[in-house]
Recover the amino acids of this structure.
């Protein structure tokens, strides 16, 4: 099977997945034909098959990272012209959230140029959804909103609204919208869980760490659409795991790509660390803050994955949820608490869709989230 791959260089190559059987392709050494061999690059015309060059996993990894690095560099150079939702998000992410005049001024300077976003932030803050704030009267400036809600909550509202603002963009493919929607849900879930589990010390970063857990996947979906389409086809045809297929095809996992690119973008260390996938869990929630954030990000991402693949009846969905909660025993919930969490999350997301008059019915994850909430 042959298909195109962006390499970050001006020219385009073609790559082919190499089977892991004991046999090996012509010109490939015995050592190279080990399990590391994943792809073959073919330069020139695909029809004549000239200039076949075998790539190891490391070579595929290098090509993927070079391409993503090139794309991010171009994004920063072109400003709002290239993937504006990501650029705006990154600018908000990198704002230090300590409560001081410098941080508040930098935050307001970052978003005050966007009058529509500022207006919508104030609408959300003053909406009946935040009725507990009514005792403060009408909040009509960003500085006032920050003094009442705190810079963390206002930043999270801004991030959520920024995502919805740009989901109308026809240049953003359905795959990218799906990842954004799942990431936003994961972030809101994380905030809800941290608050209900008494993890108040995590509230400042819980939302944003979970929101950006799939940063690598988001970049690959947007900047490598042809490869992403092929990954989806192979996953569908071979009934295999998307993450594993992406690693075979690109030479790198979504998580590793996200961590490396996040470092390039100068994300805070806690956010980068939270992107790492946890293979085995401790019985209890770790004591140190970075590991707690990482556990929470992994957990909410798994919850969203469960929802995304929830094609079963209500009994099957509840069984899968019970299995996940048992596996992640660090977080202890009653059935009532789980229901309350999802009711709150769905209400918040619905509020954002209303603010931007955004029809989310075309996003499969949103429909599954709504159905999931009804089965609990």
């Amino acid at each position: 099977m042959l298909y195109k791959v962006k390499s970050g260089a001006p020219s385009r190559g073609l790559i082919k997945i190499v089977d892991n059987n004991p046999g090996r392709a012509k010109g490939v050494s015995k050592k190279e034909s080990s399990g590391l061999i994943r792809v073959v690059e073919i330069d020139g015309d695909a029809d004549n098959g000239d200039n076949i060059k075998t790539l190891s996993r490391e070579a595929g990894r290098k090509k993927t990272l070079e391409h993503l690095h090139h794309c991010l560099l171009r994004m920063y150079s072109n400003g709002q012209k290239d993937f504006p939702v990501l650029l705006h998000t990154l600018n908000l992410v990198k704002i230090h959230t300590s409560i001081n005049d410098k941080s508040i001024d930098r935050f307001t300077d970052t978003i005050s140029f966007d009058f529509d976003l500022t207006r919508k932030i104030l609408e959300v803050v003053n909406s009946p959804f935040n009725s507990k704030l009514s005792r403060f009267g009408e909040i009509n400036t960003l500085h006032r909103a920050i003094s009442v809600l705190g810079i963390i909550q206002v930043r999270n509202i801004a991030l959520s609204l920024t995502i919805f603002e740009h989901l109308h963009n026809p240049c953003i493919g359905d795959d990218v919208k799906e990842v954004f929607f799942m990431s936003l849900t994961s972030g809101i879930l994380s905030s809800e869980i941290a608050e209900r589990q008494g993890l108040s010390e995590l509230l400042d970063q819980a939302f944003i760490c979970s929101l950006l857990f799939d940063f690598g996947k988001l970049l690959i979906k947007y900047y490598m659409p042809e490869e992403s389409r092929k990954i989806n086809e192979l996953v569908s045809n071979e009934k295999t795991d998307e993450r594993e297929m992406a690693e075979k095809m690109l030479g790198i996992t979504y998580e590793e790509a996200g961590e490396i690119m996040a470092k390039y973008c100068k994300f805070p260390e806690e956010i980068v660390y939270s992107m790492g996938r946890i293979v085995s869990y401790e019985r209890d929630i770790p004591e140190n803050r970075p590991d707690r954030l990482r556990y929470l990000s992994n957990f909410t991402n798994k919850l969203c994955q469960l929802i995304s693949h929830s094609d079963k009846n209500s009994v099957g969905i509840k069984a899968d949820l019970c299995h996940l909660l048992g596996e992640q025993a660090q977080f202890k919930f009653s059935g009532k608490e789980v229901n309350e969490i999802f009711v709150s999350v769905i209400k918040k997301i619905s509020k954002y869709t209303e603010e931007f008059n955004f029809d989310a019915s075309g996003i499969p994850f949103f429909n599954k989230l709504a159905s999931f909430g009804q089965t609990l």
Observations:
- Residues 79-375 form a domain with the Hypothetical protein af1432 fold (CATH 1.10.3210.10).
- DSSP finds 17 helices and four strands in the chain.
- The radius of gyration is 22 Å.
- The chain has a mean pLDDT of 77.
